[in-house]
């Protein structure tokens, strides 16, 4: 549907109130896109429900009128999973931002889909607990969107993905039915666990409206160390050595090109004077003297062995935050070059050879493209960012990067990896889904969607086409 007639607009206003139905161009552009910029948004309207009942009513109206829906959370996605480009109705869940039903015994809390990640983290801290899923967009990403994409982030090596912290879900399906899934149980083997179908489904099976989230005890004192290495195999030696002696909570890497951009544009200081091809950022438990001595001994062993060139370790919370910014500020820094992003993964042991093959293919075919590498290498997830040359038109840049992607994904397929480690498939990766999922798997996915969304109104065209 390419327009919203007066009767349909009135029906939406009757559900949520006139103040929460938006048609102006500026608001539609805001709610109709995520962090990607390759596809222009063109939603017919944006509606902000204030209750689960209102979400159900909107979905039922959409079914009756044939109006497609794009669910919208914090809009921090990187695969165009929340882009409304075909006259869809954006259902933004920002107003479902309640936090309650905290149980100190169960260590769970119930929160609306619109709760911002950082707010949940702060709530957990107020209760003397900890929500470990964390990433650079925690100040704007929302819990519903995190669950819909099974967000990962910087702590996966220790704490896992979002999936591991969802104890229960409330979901409105494509018929307007409300499902209350798992209800916070630890043990529940009574048939299929539909909760896990919804996690990572990118809004194609239902609108996540509420979640019961598990919390845990705080990790205690954490130290941060940045180490420079001469090559990728050395980075993997750092991972192997330190993981064997310390309790790692994060293990990130980035290239010199990435660091140089952050230093120049964010006004940060280098962690040490030596310029290195690659860097590893380690966060580990234990600020006591014994742990720090073990860390320093490992560092010295690396220097003696030639697989560490230089290093720096935090001496305070402020220093730890400053070191983290070297990694976390990369995405924001390079956004001005409109990077073409590939979020790929393979087994941790295969990462050095995998990266070498990918880099060789890109450099050989497009020597004028600058590559920025960074990622969560401790769990096998790396981010390949190709920066757009200023003089190259966007359409031509996207087309040439599409060629690069096919070559890259052929390597991904050969290594048994994934074309989307944590960003989802959305619109940008759906043409490449076959490099990771078989035709049989994709057909089963289609059949599952037809069960939950028989009218095909929920985020159509995302992940795959029906």
Automatic annotation (TrEMBL):
InterPro entries for this protein: FAD-bd_oxidored_4_C, FAD-bd_PCMH, FAD-bd_PCMH-like_sf, FAD-bd_PCMH_sub1, FAD-bd_PCMH_sub2, FAD-linked_Oxase-like_C, FAD-oxidored/transferase_4, Oxid_FAD_bind_N
Gene3D superfamilies hit by this protein: 3.30.465.10, 3.30.70.2190, 3.30.70.2740, Uridine Diphospho-n-acetylenolpyruvylglucosamine Reductase, domain 2, Vanillyl-alcohol Oxidase, Chain A, domain 4
Domain (FAD-binding PCMH-type) ranges: 39-218
Reactions that this protein is recorded to catalyse: (R)-2-hydroxyglutarate + A = 2-oxoglutarate + AH2
GO terms assigned for molecular function: (R)-2-hydroxyglutarate dehydrogenase activity; FAD binding; metal ion binding
GO biological process, one term: respiratory electron transport chain
KW DNA-binding (keyword) present: no
Keyword Cell cycle among record annotations: no
EC number: 1.1.99.39
Annotated keywords: FAD, Flavoprotein, Metal-binding, Oxidoreductase, Zinc
Catalytic EC class: oxidoreductase
Pfam families: FAD-oxidase_C, FAD_binding_4
Co-factor requirement: FAD
Subunit structure as annotated in this protein's UniProt entry: Homodimer.
Family indicated by similarity: Belongs to the FAD-binding oxidoreductase/transferase type 4 family.
PANTHER family (alphabetical): D-2-HYDROXYGLUTARATE DEHYDROGENASE, MITOCHONDRIAL
Name recorded for this polypeptide: D-2-hydroxyglutarate dehydrogenase
Taxonomic source organism: Chromatocurvus halotolerans
């Amino acid at each position: 549907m390419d327009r919203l007639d007066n009767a349909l607009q009135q029906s939406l206003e009757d559900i949520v109130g006139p103040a929460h139905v938006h048609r102006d161009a500026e608001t539609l552009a805001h709610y109709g896109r995520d962090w990607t910029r390759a596809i222009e948004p063109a939603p017919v309207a944006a509606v902000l429900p204030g209750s689960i009942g209102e979400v159900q009513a909107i979905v039922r109206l959409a079914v009756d009128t044939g109006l497609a829906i794009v669910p919208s959370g914090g809009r921090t996605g990187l695969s165009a999973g929340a882009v409304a480009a075909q006259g869809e109705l954006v259902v933004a869940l920002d107003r479902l931002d309640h936090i309650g039903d905290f149980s100190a015994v169960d260590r769970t809390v119930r929160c609306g889909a619109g709760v911002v990640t950082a707010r949940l983290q702060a709530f957990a801290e107020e209760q003397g607990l900890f929500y470990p899923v964390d990433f650079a967009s925690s100040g704007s990403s929302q819990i519903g969107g995190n669950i819909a994409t099974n967000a990962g982030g910087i702590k996966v090596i220790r704490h896992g993905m979002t999936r591991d912290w969802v104890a229960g879900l409330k979901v409105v399906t494509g018929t307007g039915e409300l499902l209350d899934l798992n209800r916070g149980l630890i043990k529940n083997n009574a048939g299929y666990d539909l909760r896990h179908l919804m996690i990572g489904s990118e809004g194609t099976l239902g609108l996540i409206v509420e979640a019961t989230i598990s919390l845990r005890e705080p990790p205690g004192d954490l130290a941060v160390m940045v180490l420079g290495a001469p090559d990728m195999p050395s980075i993997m030696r750092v991972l192997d050595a330190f993981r064997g002696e310390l309790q790692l909570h994060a293990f990130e890497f980035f290239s010199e090109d990435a660091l140089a951009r952050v230093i120049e544009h964010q006004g940060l200081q280098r962690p040490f004077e030596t310029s290195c091809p690659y860097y590893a950022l380690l966060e580990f438990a234990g600020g006591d003297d014994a742990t720090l001595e073990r860390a320093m001994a490992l560092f010295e062993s690396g220097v003696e062995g030639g697989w560490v060139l230089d290093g720096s370790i935090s001496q305070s919370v402020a220093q730890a935050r400053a070191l983290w910014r070297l990694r976390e500020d990369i995405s924001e820094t390079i956004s001005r070059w409109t990077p073409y992003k590939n979020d790929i993964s393979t087994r941790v042991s295969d990462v050095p050879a995998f990266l070498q093959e990918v880099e060789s293919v890109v450099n050989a075919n497009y020597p004028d493209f600058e590559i920025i590498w960074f990622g969560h290498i401790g769990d096998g997830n790396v981010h390949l960012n190709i920066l757009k040359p200023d003089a190259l038109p966007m359409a031509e840049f996207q087309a040439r990067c599409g060629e690069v992607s096919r070559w890259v994904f052929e390597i991904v397929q050969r290594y048994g990896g994934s074309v989307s480690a944590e960003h989802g498939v959305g619109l940008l990766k759906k043409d490449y889904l076959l490099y990771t999922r078989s035709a049989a798997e994709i057909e089963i996915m289609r059949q599952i969607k037809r069960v939950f969304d028989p009218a095909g109104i929920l985020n159509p065209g995302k992940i795959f086409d029906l």
